[in-house]
Amino acid sequence: MTEDAKVTPWEVTGILGDTDYSKIADRFGAKIIDRAMKERIASYTGDLHPFLRYDVFFAHRDLDLILDAYSRGEGFYLYTGRGPSGKMHLGHLLPFMFTRWLQEKFNVDLIIQITDDEKFLFRDLNSGDLNRYTSDNILDILSLGFNPERTHIMVDTLNSGLLYNNAIKVARHINVSLAKSVFGFDDSDNVGKYFFTSIQAVPSFILSEILGRPIRCLIPYAIDQDPHFKVARDVMPKIGYEKPSSIISKFIPSLKGSGKMSSSDTTTGIYLDDDRKTVRKKLMKYAFSGGRDTADEQRKYGANPDIDFSFNVFRLLENDPSVVSRIYDEYRSGQLLSGEMKAMTADRISNLLEGLSINREKVKNNISDYMFSTDRFR
Amino acid sequence: MTEDAKVTPWEVTGILGDTDYSKIADRFGAKIIDRAMKERIASYTGDLHPFLRYDVFFAHRDLDLILDAYSRGEGFYLYTGRGPSGKMHLGHLLPFMFTRWLQEKFNVDLIIQITDDEKFLFRDLNSGDLNRYTSDNILDILSLGFNPERTHIMVDTLNSGLLYNNAIKVARHINVSLAKSVFGFDDSDNVGKYFFTSIQAVPSFILSEILGRPIRCLIPYAIDQDPHFKVARDVMPKIGYEKPSSIISKFIPSLKGSGKMSSSDTTTGIYLDDDRKTVRKKLMKYAFSGGRDTADEQRKYGANPDIDFSFNVFRLLENDPSVVSRIYDEYRSGQLLSGEMKAMTADRISNLLEGLSINREKVKNNISDYMFSTDRFR
């Protein structure tokens, strides 16, 4: 990536398939999740999620403090979120799979913030659309099977009282100059955008506020959200809270292998309601391939799996690393053809989506069980 | 006043005793309340409040539209507010007396916004102090005897859900550039300050929002709050509401006759809990006098009542204009001495304050009757 590549929550450029993420981590002041850290995590979780094994979640801030607290029996909680600006696609969903895994392995509370106010302030969406995306996205997320006892969906406009009253504590320590330098805003941006990061900071300390005692927060998020939480980490000690820790993922690339999977371009992303035929067609037609142009060449020279969209998604959906190694070798050597790789991944994706679709129907009537309420912590 | 005199809600300079308010009205794009308008008001109210008679409320925007709506039987509502940053003094209270009069004469709903969030964002106050000032100020305001059926105290942090969800509609139309030019902010100001004007705009349309039909809003306020409502008027049509109308007052000057009566300088203001002796002492010692240096000179040359603090307050507390004229003439001619003028006004003030103090005790147990709730409009 170039030095001046932009990585803000709303404008993402320069983060391509061959990005050197260690440089990004450095630039962002985060630490790479190295072998030692992976081993430490595995010592608590028993196994490693593919997202850790294959470095999708590649960096962290103060993850060690979370694990310290956990090992002392103090516990912690998870906080992640979703801006409901459209239908969810695979790229949106995968990080939630990882968060679900963290919740299960550590048996902790999880706050999922749905930032409908953000999308209102940043996009030209009306409240009807926002409400529809909000309900729809919540169902998609819950279809992954979060623990209903410990999962707390916080829709911003439904919790705006609690959020605003706590956000002003944060806002007092963020000036316009800082917001400009961190988010790339200018004077033509609306004042709601400037204020919003304070709202997004609240869940990172709200449990300490509600419980009346400090409890650490771990935030899994994609790198584009980093500016928000970097600001939050700077402000927290000034208002009497611990800095939240973070575990940071790369983007799930678009089918084309570069850029983020997009909500607006139907040819670059796989939607959760795409049927088996559509998924297969999209992969066949659009998925960036590391294979050769012809079957003959592929058999002769083999593929480059590292830059292949299908292989990269396949390994995230396969828990057994020996299977992944075998497929890697077969594809690398040319035994496996590009179309076969695509078909295999398409099947994996469709199996996942069909399972989620069934769960979605089941969870439909129980959404209220998952909704955030301060009473649930008392 | 000089052309570049600042009149923002937080920084007030240039508004001295001899200010040419018609120039200010012009500059602010407001209209002077002229004789015809006063007569029209009196045609509904029967009499004129001293604040109108003596041009304390001296300007307006679209007051005629309010009176049109009223005469068509459509009704309107009042909205005013208070930032709870300290004990209230006489200068704070007098505009509420006028608002109470408007409520009584037109028998309309009144929303009183208590902007504790504003004071949190703009001052270095902790929430303990803010809560104390909030309760205390509410009691002071209610001691004036508002109609409990139609008065709605909206404490921002107690209604922040409703406020934030509506404020983001406003915020989307206010950019940093506008906030800077209107409020004199710069990049070192915190993002909460920038956002706050959106919160203050909400009560000017919230009743239309709650009732689901347009109802006009009239906002009585002192000139220093004008930037907030000028912005609100610009934004309202963009989000589907009528522009609020306003009726605008001069500042009640400090005892010294210049500048605003201040909360922080105990020698320039009269607090609501000042006893009779203290009020008299403050007036005797500090009240700016239009009289002469000695009793002899005063008898010989007479006073200038127009610049005399005591006379100016006296006439606001006297409903009978013939009494005011008589006192004016006596003071002007030298019959009345400066000390006598001060003593008379001190008595009037103390009579008022003692009455309020009794009401304050009575209203103490009924505060909840006055608190804002959307249910009260349904």
Overview of this structure, please?
The structure is a homodimer of 378-residue chains. By secondary structure, chain A is an alpha/beta fold. Chain A has two domains: 21-256, HUPs (Rossmann fold); 276-362, Tyrosyl-Transfer RNA Synthetase. Helices cover 50% and strands 10% of the residues of chain A. Chain A contains 18 helices and seven strands. Chain A has helices at 21-28, 35-45, 50-53, 63-71, 90-106, 116-122, 127-142, 160-171, 176-183, 191-201, 206-211, 226-235, 276-286, 295-301, 309-316, 321-333, 338-363, 367-370; strands spanning 31-32, 57-61, 76-82, 110-114, 151-155, 216-222, 245-249. Chain A has a seven-stranded mixed β-sheet with strand order 1-2-7-6-3-4-5, sandwiched between helices. In chain A, strand 6, helix 12 (226-235) and strand 7 (245-249) form a beta-alpha-beta unit. The radius of gyration of chain A is 21 Å and the shape is globular. The model of chain A is unreliable at 1-17 (pLDDT under 50). Chains A and B meet through helix 6, helix 8, helix 9 and helix 10 of A and helix 6, helix 8, helix 9 and helix 10 of B.
